[in-house]
Write a structure and sequence with these properties.
The chain contains four helices and nine strands; from the N terminus they run βαβαββββαβββα. The chain has 202 residues and is α/β, with parallel strands linked by helices. The strands form two sheets. Strands 2, 3, 4, 5, 6, 7 and 8 form a seven-stranded mixed sheet that branches. Strand 2, helix 2 and strand 3 form a beta-alpha-beta unit. Helix 1 packs across helix 2. It is globular. The structure holds xanthosine-5'-monophosphate.
Length: 202
């Protein structure tokens, strides 16, 4: 697997430091937001609900929530934009989870979490669904934001790192299902992409 790496864009130590800093900032903001609403256990007032978009945010969310010392619920949803051997977005498709979210989120402070902000279509689509549930607030957090000056797009409230517009894997991100377990965020050698694509076709 190590031989497939072209370049390490973000090392695991830098990721760990940034996740802690992000969590500190988020915890302060969430604590303020939930304190400013009445906390009634029978509705969602003042509750914090994290909505991670799987599968790419899996590792990021696992690290982030362990640095967030606030009472929260976690409700995952699953969306795919890069099915199979794609290295360009095919547009977001909901795979599951939206129907398992509470019917209403009145008064809840929602934090929507994704791995990468690319065109912004994924976050925009999920936010539309969430808004219908009437939460008190919706904030967004992404580990990576691709620099795509040509795209007029949605922005996120919390961003881990800005990266060039290249296809990346590791730290939860995959190519054709592989490489999620790499601890660093990396680009792949063209030969590796070719091999993994071929492997899928066999
Ligand atoms: P949009 O364009 O909707 O895309 O903002 C966000 C989703 O696309 C996936 N994505 C990637 N996945 N390497 C990946 O493994 C990448 O370089 C990449 N860029 C975008 C990702 O699932 C994200 O949720």
């Amino acid at each position: 697997m190590q031989n497939d790496i072209d370049q390490v864009l973000i090392h695991r130590a830098d990721i760990a430091r940034r996740v802690e800093a992000l969590a500190k900032q988020i915890a302060e903001d969430l604590a303020l937001a939930s304190a400013s609403t009445s906390s009634d256990e029978h509705d969602h007032a003042g509750r914090i609900t994290l909505v991670p978009i799987l599968t790419g945010s899996l590792v990021f969310v696992a690290d982030l929530i362990r640095c967030l010392p606030v009472r929260m619920q976690v409700k995952v949803i699953s969306i795919s934009s890069y099915p199979g051997p794609s290295t360009t977005s095919q547009g977001p498709t909901i795979l599951g989870g939206l129907d398992t979210l509470p019917k209403r989120l009145d008064g809840a402070n929602v934090l929507l979490i994704d791995d990468i902000l690319d065109t912004g279509r994924t976050l925009a689509m999920v936010i539309d669904h969430l808004k219908a549930k009437k939460p008190r607030s919706i904030h967004t957090c992404v580990m990576l934001r691709k620099q795509r000056p040509e795209e007029a797009r949605f922005n996120a409230d919390y961003v881990g790192f800005d990266i060039p517009n290249r296809f990346v894997v590791g730290y939860g991100l995959d190519y054709n299902g592989y490489y999620r377990n790499l601890p660093d965020i990396v680009t792949l050698r063209a030969e590796a992409i070719h091999q993994r694509r071929h492997a899928e076709a066999v």
